[in-house]
Amino acid sequence: MPIHCLRYDDLCAYSDRALEAGLIDLLLRTRIPCTFGVIPFACDPASLLADGEVKLIPLTREKADLLKPLLAAGLAEVALHGYSHLALAPIRGHHEFSPRMPKETQRRLIRRGRDHLENLFGLQVRFFVPPWNYISPATIEILHEEGLLLSAGFTNQSPGIPHFPCTVAPTQTARALRMARRWGAGADGIGTLLHDYDFSESNLGISDLTLPMFEQMIRDWQQTPGVRFQLIADALREKPTDDAGRESENARLRNALRRSRLGRRLFPLAELVYWETTTAGRLAAKMKYLP
Ligand SMILES: [Zn+2]
């Protein structure tokens, strides 16, 4: 029975309140759970672009309260999404959680960010979502030591802590769910990732998807028989996905799909599902014989 998780990233002090209020209403109506990746001290793009000044703006209680109805309904959870989400000279690796960032500095960023969110939301933050999926071995150690779970993209390496990848665009989700149902054997994972720019209401001009269209999309997902819609923490509590075998078998399958044109035709979007270990191995073995 496939497991579906939804994650919305980049909620922060300056994010689009009207869009997010609309999304939250929609999630309440459709009763679909969603993990929110929240930036505790976002870098203010307005002062950066207009004045060349790097100014951090803490998430406010008023903004945090937007999530209250969803949290009360058990339909949301809060994840720490970096510290300020600011990339400093990515070519030198000076982003917040790069290998060049000293471990104790990373720990301070994580603790300060987590404390701020826990204060505002009045709950325990148990998740870490790394900005741009940049994460280093030291970050993994800290997550272990601080008792945090992980939701990122595919890492191609075993993070060694319970994690649930969210990599699927909303427009690809229905097909990924069908693929998981057709070929999966158990708790195969489909993680849909959302940002403000996935919606035309953000006025960023990147997507034509409106909130009403997204609502219809969700209702279609809910019609897929046998899919369970869960918060990431619940999915991980039920089945902790920290085994190295699952990660490496899925990476092997993705590599095999990249090499096989016929494989990609027969198993469209198979690379977006986080398969159970045995299914990933079985599908990867099939690819061997496909050109
Ligand atoms: Zn982000």
Can you give a write-up of this model?
The structure is a single chain. With 291 residues, the chain is α/β, with parallel strands linked by helices. The protein has 2 domains: 3-154 and 207-229, Glycoside hydrolase/deacetylase (TIM Barrel); 246-287, no CATH class. Helices cover 43% and strands 13% of the residues. The protein has 12 helices and 9 strands. The chain has helices spanning 17-30, 45-51, 61-64, 68-72, 103-121, 137-146, 170-183, 211-223, 232-238, 244-259, 261-266, 277-287; strands at 3-11, 34-38, 41-43, 56-58, 76-80, 127-128, 149-150, 189-194, 228-229. Strands 1, 2, 5, 6, 7, 8 and 9 form a 7-stranded parallel beta sheet that branches. A two-stranded antiparallel ribbon has the order 3-4. It is globular and about 55 Å long. It starts with a strand and ends with a helix. The chain binds zinc ion. Zinc ion is lined by residues 9-10, 81, 85, 131.
